[in-house]
Amino acid sequence: MLSPSYKPEDYPLLPDLPGVYRYYNKEGELIYVGKAKNLKKRVSSYFIKSSGINHKTRRMVKEIKKIEIAIVNSEFDALLLENNLIKKSQPKYNVLLKDDKTYPYLLLTKEHFPRIFPTRRVIPSKGTYFGPFASVRGMHNVLDLIRSLFNIRTCKLDLSPGKIATSKYKVCLEYHIGNCLGPCEGLQKEHDYLQDIEQAKNILKGNLAVAKSHFKEKMREAAEKLAFEEAQHYKEKLDLLEMYQAKSLVINPNVSSLDVFSIVSEEKFAFVNYLKIKNGAIILTKTVELKKKLDEPDAELLETALIHLRDQFQSDAREILVNTPLETAVEGLQITLPKIGDKKKLVDLSLKNALYYKKEKALASGENRDKKNRVLKQLQKDLSLLQLPDHIECFDNSNIQGANPVASMVCFMDGKPAKKEYRHYHIKTVTGPNDFASMEEVVGRRYKKLLEEAKPLPKLVVIDGGKGQLSSAVQALKNLGIYGQVPIIGIAKRLEEIYFPGDSYPLFIDKKSESLRLLQKIRDEAHRFAITFHRNVRSKNAFGTQLTSIPGIGENTAQKLLKAFKSVKKIREAKKEDLITVVGPDKAEKLWHAFHHS
């Protein structure tokens, strides 16, 4: 264990051995995990080198207060340990592999007459899992093939010998249409059923050659017995299997299992594609996105993804093809960067997938950004605004015949709700149902506070209402001396007219316009926020009135009771001892008498 305050001469404490190092900050939080062929050289390089280290790494080094190391036997062991520690702790300066999907598996159950069915939950005690599959469609293609080739049951019956012997089960429709051979009535022996399961397992493992040999042998045996219908039956299954293989065949079927990885990188992200090959066919393809933290080189990123994906998709291939050399020699694996031939074509295909994924992500983020800017630019054009309205605030009042008057303000940043900036207002200076005066009060209060706190003013203020409410809001801005600095409009609900200060003629924006839909969305959100707040206030006041009508019970006491018991009904039902705990013996006695002796 070291401290970065150590001088260079202190680094002999570190061994010249492979291992993993962990950096912690002053709070004891793990912030980085790294691997090294030589711990002494690698760790000391962070603190001795003055050049060649990027600013992100320098920032991390400043946070390091404690270092821990773990010595391992080889560089590959260090790579595996590093991967496990990153996966477990997800330190903030390590590469983030963005892939939080729950993948589907096919489960071969551990029971009499095993079943095969899809699942996303992995419980090892249930049986053997095959996968995960990168797509649901790919999984169902394999499952459909197996069910076409073999008579695998789909029911959930307990087919233990004892249960079958009781003759409590009857064959179902699956038996009558030929998809099941009726093991529930003892019409199929478990030994025969398990032979089919063994062949299904070979297909699930990608070993199609074994399944093909099985059907060829069965076809030959049937032909020798002159059972030509049976032979034709096996030939059809063999044809089905070969058709399935032909669809996914990309190279010579004599090529054994191998994995193909390619990486394409940009400033902040990298994209790694993985092709899993069995007997010349692609049985899985997957692309993942890695978020860079310390400007990691492509070789390091590819190593991270390689270990993760091989572990996740349970690869046992001993040969790996890549498009960039790796820094770590991986024991027991042959890692090749092919230059020509079928293997080079596979790497090119993988790279094509990675580039497509990168392009797709860029288009998606660009479209979202363009759409947001397009709507705001259209709104800017429709309202003749000098600035893009990327900060909009909208006000609405709510009261019923002047009772419990409240108001709300909602805030939209970049065209989206910024809910942390939403505000509720109790009307303080207005008596009776006066929407105009209430609007002037809340607009004045909002922007007086922003000015006092030196916070930026919005690029557009929207008032829910027509000319009257707008005039009141304008007066509030004039009182603060900021009228003219903040664009302000009113939106009247009946015909969705847009009113400008001092203009008696409204603006009508095209009803199909995205800019009008944005204004409607903001207005409706302000209305919803105000109505919800008003409903809550009205409800609390109604409860409070029932309590404050009791002599000796004031508003503060009523609120204290409601906070403790949640409702008047529960206060009424409470024991006297519980009331005494909340409000004391004198007031508790008054409540008790009012509820139980009136």
Automatic annotation (TrEMBL):
Function in brief: The UvrABC repair system catalyzes the recognition and processing of DNA lesions. UvrC both incises the 5' and 3' sides of the lesion. The N-terminal half is responsible for the 3' incision and the C-terminal half is responsible for the 5' incision.
Stretches assigned to the UvrC family homology region profile domain: 264-477
UniProt entry keywords in alphabetical sequence: Cytoplasm, DNA damage, DNA excision, DNA repair, Excision nuclease, SOS response
A Pfam match: UvrC_RNaseH
Record-stated family: Belongs to the UvrC family.
Quaternary data: Interacts with UvrB in an incision complex.
GIY-YIG domain sequence ranges: 16-95
Taxonomic source organism: Negadavirga shengliensis
Name by which UniProt lists this protein: UvrABC system protein C
Protein localization: Cytoplasm
Domain of life assignment: Bacteria
Predominant place of localization: cytoplasm
Residue ranges of the TM segments: none
